[in-house]
Amino acid sequence: MEQHLYGDGEPGVERLEVLEGPTGRRRWPAEVKGRIVAETLRPGATVAEVARRHGIGAQHLSTWRRLAREGKIVVPGDALDDVPMFARVEIAPEPVSRPCSGFVAIDFGEVTIRLPGDAPAGRIADIAHALRAAR
Fold first, then answer.
1. What angle do CA 75, 54, 78 make, to 5 degrees?
2. DSSP code at position 114
3. Using an 8 Å Cβ cutoff, are 51 and 58 in contact?
4. Per the CB 3.0–4.6 Å rule, which of 3, 56, 73, 105 could disulfide with 68?
5. How far lies 116's CA from each of 29, 45, 123, 124, 125, in Å?
6. CA distances from residue 40 to 10, 27, 98, 117, 134 in whole angstroms, order as listed
7. Coil, strand or helix: which one is 68?
């Protein structure tokens, strides 16, 4: 069947494509985003390959990964079984004149290790590495 899209004597469209399938924006449920992000965390997986398999752009999936790191997308817990776990460690500059009265807590599963607040950064790093190796 041939359609002509002419009006008011103006030249019409020479070529018209009809796209099948979803077009425009898609709405992804949060749990689906989390499962897709989890796929990128598996050893050997690449963002580009996972994105291609799900029909989304790699940059879009990278945005989801950032949102997951910020806690705005929940990644299923079982998806992380084979993924190394990391903890955020912040080391503040040593106080110039007053001693530190606080402590540093390292949570590792059900175990919490508390060190004096003035513990050397190297000591804290050694303990973090030992805990990671023990996992």
1. 25
2. E
3. yes
4. 73
5. 44, 40, 11, 10, 14
6. 51, 20, 46, 36, 25
7. helix
CB 62 within 8 A of CB 112: no
What does the block give as tokens for 104?
Answer: 């540093």
pLDDT tens digits for the chain (135 residues)? 555 555 555 566 677 777 666 666 788 898 899 999 999 988 888 999 999 999 899 999 999 999 988 889 888 866 555 555 566 667 766 655 555 567 888 877 777 888 888 888 888 888 887 877 766
What is the distance between the alpha carbons of residues 6 and 90, in angstroms, rounded to a whole number? 67
Q: Using CA atoms, how far apart are residues 61 and 32, in angstroms rounded to an integer? A: 12
